[in-house]
Amino acid sequence: MPAPSIILRPGTPADARHVAIMSRDLIETGLKWSWTAERVHRTLCHPEVMSVMACDGDRIVGFAITQFGEEHAHLSLFAVGPSHQHMGIGRRLIDWTVETAYAAGVAVIHLETRAANHAARRFYRNLGFQENAYIPGYYGGREMALKMLRELRTPGVADVEWELPKPPSNPE
Hints:
The protein is an alpha+beta fold. It has a domain at about 5-115: Gcn5-related N-acetyltransferase (GNAT) (Aminopeptidase), CATH 3.40.630.30. Helix content is about 25%, strand content about 35%. The chain has helices spanning about 15-25, 35-45, 90-105, 120-125, and strands spanning about 5-10, 50-55, 60-70, 70-80, 110-115, 130-140, 145-150. A hairpin with a 3-residue loop joins strand 3 (about 60-70) and strand 4 (about 70-80). Helix 1 crosses helix 2.
C-alpha cells in the first residue's frame, strides 16, 4: 500500500514526549520503560545525535534516532506506527539515516534488535545490515539482542573521491 503524504523532517526536542510514548508502546513492549520523555529529550538535544521524524500531517508516525561518533553510528531508536507500516516509511527513515551517516564520514552503523523479532531482522537485512552477534540478556536481563551492522566504507580508510591526474599538456 502506498504511503500517504509523509514528510520527513529533522527531529526536535519538542518531539520527545511523542517519541517516548511510541518507544514504550512499540519498542519496549514487555520491558521496563527506559526511553522516557526526559531521556529522549536529552538525547534529541545532544549535538552528536541525528534524528528524523516521519510525519503524517502534524502527527509523528515514525522516527529514527542515531548517535554519531567519528567512524561509527548507533541507531538507538527506530519505529514506525502500525497504521503506517509496510508503506516504505521505514525504508525512507533508514535511507535518510544512512545518507546522513555517509556524508558525515561514518564507516559503520550499528543497531540492536530483539533476536526473536524476525520481521525486524528481515527488514534490516533487506536494507543491507548484517547480523553480527548475539547479546544474551540485553533487554532487561530477559531477552537476547541481535547486534546488526551496515558497513558504509572500510573503517580507518577515508572514502575520498578522486580522478586520475590529467597528463601534462605538451606544448608543440
